[in-house]
Amino acid sequence: xxxxxxxxxxCAIATLLLVQWVTGSSAFAWRDKGHRVVALIAEANFTQExxxxxxxxxxxxxxxxxxxxxxxxxxxxxxxxxxxxYVSIAENAESYDQARDCPQRDCVVEALKWFLANxxxxxxxxxxxxxxxxYVAHLVGDMHQPLHAGRLKDRxxxxxxxxxxxxxxxxxxxxDLDLVEMEGGSAExxxxxxxxxxxxxxxxxxxxxxxxxxxxxxxxxVRTRAYSLGQxxxxxxxxxxxxxxxxxxxxxxxxxxLAWLLNSAFR
Length: 267
Hints:
The chain is mainly α and 267 residues long. It has one domain (10-265): P1 Nuclease. It has helices at residues 10-19, 31-43, 48-57, 64-69, 98-101, 108-120, 126-144, 171-181, 187-197, 200-206, 211-226, 237-265; strands spanning 161-164, 167-170. It has a two-stranded antiparallel sheet.
């Protein structure tokens, strides 16, 4: 994948997007359904002020769920922005380190910080806030997908071919889409189920930390769960039953944390 030649500010990336606005596609994270679920869970936890500010920023008729999938469609038309969706952490490392893992600050951890800063800037133009909101909503979801803190050598599982019940795919795609689809129902229905299952104790505990801590959680999960398939390319039912609750929890955590970030940004 192309990489940025130098670190960019949120405003610089917004300008790049405006200049090169065309439709495109590439590899996705959580796919659209997962990102919509995260946004819908967040919406259910917004303050009234946050709802008002988001309505002012987004175009009329656009929901936060629509905004959350934008970076995987229009945003993907600019190849230099692809690294913003993930981070590859050194295999012998126990946690994310910016100097080692993201020296150009062009990964999901640092990108979320840029866009959140632009969104919180009261002097930023609406168009800058609009693009920043789209990326904040999207990248919080990305960093909760464990394979977005995966290994560089297999591109976060994208180069690991797997099959399940006769259907062949790759490990990254299986976590992005197949495991989410196994939960059944529309994005709205899944968001309601996951949101209703969150306890108050979980909500309070999850509303803490930030991009580095949440990425470190994914790092732990990708090593202990996602990459635990061994040498077999055929995924077992046991593997799937282990992975499904991980996906449910990460979607719920992302939604609660996205709401927490946006409520704080618009306070």
